[in-house]
């Protein structure tokens, strides 16, 4: 039980990668909290540098797969679970994937979005979406 019966409240402004890793770290700490995540975009988790409004399909992320800290699963494992036809849309050959590869930014954004949703589901949180 929390002291005084009141949960500490935390607000995360921005649900891009930094907000997502902050959210993940708070969950992993195991401290009872009330967490609110605020995001201006329609999809939380993606982040501006990785969304398809700001990038074209072939723009590469500036970080190799191995350098991306895992959330609910490593990035490369997530990419390998994707359909070959979906990856081909981004010029990615599923058969030649490797951990030192630089993959498209938009694909990394999809990973971050899926990881955000997986964390929400794993923890049993509800989502409220409000447009400003």
TrEMBL record:
Span of domain FAD-dependent urate hydroxylase HpyO/Asp monooxygenase CreE-like FAD/NAD(P)-binding: 11-123
Coiled coil stretches, renumbered: none
Protein name: FAD-dependent urate hydroxylase HpyO/Asp monooxygenase CreE-like FAD/NAD(P)-binding domain-containing protein
